[in-house]
Amino acid sequence: MIKIYEYEFPELGTKLTLKDINGNEYEKRVNLEKATLERVRDVFCFCCFTSLRYSDVANLKKSSVFPDHIKITTIKTADSLKIELNKYSKGILKKYEKQIFPHDGALPVLSNQRMNEYLKEMAEIMGFNEPITITSYKGNQRIDEIYPKWQMIGTHTGRRTFICNALMLGISPQIVMKWTGHSDYKAMKPYIDIADRAKADAMKLFDK
Known about the structure:
The protein is an alpha+beta fold. It has helices at about 1-5, 35-50, 55-60, 85-95, 110-125, 155-170, 175-180, 185-205; strands at about 15-20, 25-30, 70-75, 80-85, 130-140, 140-150. The protein has one domain (about 1-200): hpI Integrase, Chain A (Orthogonal Bundle).
């Protein structure tokens, strides 16, 4: 996450040599302005550091930002939430505090479609090419499809990243639910399972 937060994007038109999921090199030209990539990255990272859904970060007003927290009423569930800010989310808000956006917006949020498209561009530039297997079923037939990680990144990834990272840091599910607005512990169970598997995999690094 910090790698994305601190990444220095190349200029428009820069030619990059990247690798696909099989390790084969290919050439890619940067198709977006550096400033656009930075804005998309900042909004995405803000979601990763606060748990906000795309709809809520798009609706976040400057008037809802306070020195150490934000207050929102979520679009999806109409929950009223107070979410404390860490140094990273504060830094992003400070970067844009003097800029004016439509509807008193706190951040430079693009449409969901463009955000998803540009996030994939960002992730590909950064070399997120680890293979991700997506399993589906057609009748009784199991279908496994493999994609590079950058193709799977979207606005929904930010909220999921926050939850998994918070749980891996040892923050209790009950506290995480205060930030995310989850009222049902069952909804947190998949994230807890992911965090537990990640912790187990991390421990195995000591064996290498």
